[in-house]
Specification:
The chain is of the alpha/beta class and 602 residues long. 45% of the residues lie in helices and 10% in strands. The protein has 21 helices and 14 strands. The strands form 4 sheets. It has an 8-stranded parallel beta sheet. A two-stranded antiparallel ribbon has the order 3-4.
């Protein structure tokens, strides 16, 4: 069945979309759940089991394969309850000869674009057909359930231990256990892999039958790769195809104009990247298809009779109906991800009232790239969030760092045999002690800068899940009340709490939720973000550039230059053209600075 909605709700943090499918899937809207944190999953399973009066049994930490089992049971719970709500939504009754529909069925159709033929068909049907069974049959044939998709961060592959000392096999690490939990569930949906390629994890996929196609090309559990450019999509797609695994969707995300971790490219901009996918989609399908067929034959697997389907979607910074339509039509995309704006929709995401207030009033300067992630990757942050305040209080008290309860990001082996997290109190104390031992070799300014670098990481594992406990009044003795949140720069242009219906109408151009008149086009915004990123990179240079750095800066400026020329040709008839001229002038200034750095280096 063809998608009725042209937007999807991406994963946001850990707790923000942990139960979003329960809120939107029965309305035909696809969304994504982060499943690598089995602690919050177990708490949410208990919460919803009690809410829906379902049997609940606790899966304890010492139980064999507890992570995967928790994930499987939670996903099955989501599926069962979403289907129950969907079936209830379609119930019709006959009162005094008149067909009465449920409020949620009305909402289902109200959420659809006004121009959609399906909506018009239903209005005509309900007013002209008196046979209730005919309408029920029509609803069953035409209404679509939204997908319960899941997200796994590929970097979460540290070794886990039993009894704190005995290392478990590779397939018990967090990413592998998450994949197994999804594979063993009853879902028919997709797993979205983010944060890059992980050959060890990708090689584990073919252990599960559900990821392989049947003779008609149907795949029960599909693979979606979040990518930042065409080349990485091709490399990862071929790698998986050699194992008989088809990538059903490439989800292109802006390098900087997005929420969460920011995986910046070397100046490659979203417009040119989307254009490359548009031009090469058929080549992508054909080049990978033959590799897949050969692999399936070698494995003795079913070879589908027809070529498998491929979707191309995009997300990162879209904020208006005009941008939404342009992406769909010009780049021939299958769906557009709307993330950060949904943080102001309590019907959809878990965000506590205090954080909603901060988000609503946030301006550009309040939304910034930070160094708080223990992964060492730039992380979008909201200035003044309560988790950062808590972190600063610990520093002020002379106790920097956090207790490491979850250990999902415990990836550093600098001081210990077992890896630890750079946001942990243990790591920061060891690192600060090392700094003090070398203090005589550095200036006070350099010393203070190093202290700031060491103490910047914060416990986002707890910070990104706490809000779900606050909203649902769930016990949080370990987690506390401090909240981390990671909206994208686009959040600055949305300034009020709204309903799901209002947001859908905004996406489809039937209302406007943006009051500000100075919001730049999403492509221009991303370009400015990259210019600022380049500026910071230049300012970080403290010594002569080496050959690798020279190559990096030259590639970065060349790619930005080519991106600006691309947008000039694309947006010639738009007012944004003047903004491109400003960007050209800024880039020329940066180029001069880079050339000075290169001259000094050689």
């Amino acid at each position: 069945m063809i998608n009725q909605h042209t937007f999807h709700i991406p994963v946001m943090g850990i707790g923000f979309t942990i139960d979003t499918p329960l809120k939107v899937a029965h309305f035909g809207i696809d969304s994504v759940v982060f499943i690598s944190d089995d602690a919050i999953i177990e708490k949410m399973r208990k919460f919803y089991s009690e809410k829906f009066k379902l049997p609940y049994y606790k899966i304890n930490d010492n139980e064999n394969d507890c992570r995967a089992k928790r994930i499987t049971d939670y996903l099955n719970l989501l599926k069962n309850q979403v289907e129950r709500k969907f079936n209830e939504l379609k119930k019709l009754s006959l009162i005094e000869g008149k067909i009465v529909i449920t409020e949620n069925l009305k909402k289902y159709f109200n959420l659809l674009p006004n121009k959609l033929t399906l909506k018009k068909e239903f209005d005509k049907l309900i007013n002209s057909v008196s046979n209730i069974d005919d309408i029920k049959n029509w609803l069953s044939a035409n209404l679509k359930l939204g997908e319960i998709n899941v997200n796994i961060m590929t970097k979460l592959d540290k070794t886990n231990y039993v009894n704190k000392t005995e290392a478990l096999p590779i397939h018990y690490n967090d990413a592998h256990a998450s994949l197994r939990g999804f594979a063993n569930s009853n879902l028919e949906s997709s797993v979205i892999f983010s944060a890059g390629m992980n050959p060890r994890l990708f090689s584990y996929i073919d252990k599960f039958d559900d990821f392989f196609p049947d003779e008609y090309g149907n795949i029960k559990k599909r693979i979606v790769l979040k990518v930042s450019d065409y080349r990485s999509a091709l490399i990862q797609g071929k790698f998986l195809a050699k194992k008989g695994i088809w990538v059903s969707e490439y989800r292109i995300e802006s390098g900087l104009n997005c929420g969460g971790h920011a995986f910046a490219t070397e100046g490659y901009l979203m417009g040119p990247i989307l254009d490359e996918f548009k031009k090469n989609k058929q080549e992508l399908i054909e080049s990978i298809d033959q590799i897949l067929i050969n692999a399936l034959r070698k494995k003795g697997r079913t070879v589908p009779k027809t070529k498998l389907k491929l979707k191309i979607t995009a997300q990162g910074g879209v904020g208006t109906a005009e941008e939404h339509k342009f992406l769909l039509n010009y780049y021939q995309l299958d769906s557009i991800g709307w993330g950060s704006p949904f943080l102001l929709v309590p019907e959809v995401t878990n965000v506590d009232e205090k954080t909603i207030e901060k988000l609503s009033s946030a301006k550009e300067n309040d939304l910034y790239l930070s160094n708080i992630s223990p992964l060492g990757v730039p992380f979008n942050n909201l200035r003044g969030n309560t988790k950062d305040i808590e972190k600063q209080n610990y520093i002020t008290k002379g106790r920097p760092g956090s207790a490491c309860h979850r250990k999902y990001l415990a990836l550093n082996s600098e001081f210990t045999e077992q890896t630890i997290c750079t946001a942990s109190r243990q790591y920061q104390n060891l690192k600060l002690k090392e700094l003090d031992n070398n203090r005589a070799e550095m200036s006070q300014k350099e010393y203070n800068k190093n202290i700031s670098i060491i103490t910047s990481p914060t416990c986002i594992c707890l910070g990104l899940e706490t809000t779900a406990y606050l909203v649902n009044d769930i016990e949080r003795k370990i987690e506390g009340d401090a909240v981390s949140i990671c909206p994208g720069p686009n959040m600055a242009y949305f300034s009020k709490k709204v309903s799901l219906l209002q947001m859908a109408k905004h996406i489809y151009g039937e209302t406007n939720l943006i009051d500000r008149q100075d919001r730049p086009n999403m492509f221009i915004k991303e370009l400015y973000l990259y210019l600022n990123f380049l500026k910071d990179k230049i300012n970080d240079v403290t010594s002569n550039l080496n050959l690798k750095e020279i190559k990096y800066f030259n590639n970065f400026t060349r790619n930005l230059k080519e991106g600006i020329e691309y947008y000039k040709n694309l947006l010639t008839k738009k007012e944004d053209f003047k903004e491109l001229e400003n960007c050209n002038l800024i880039l020329a200034k940066f180029e001069n600075n880079i050339q000075k750095l290169i001259t000094e280096a050689v």
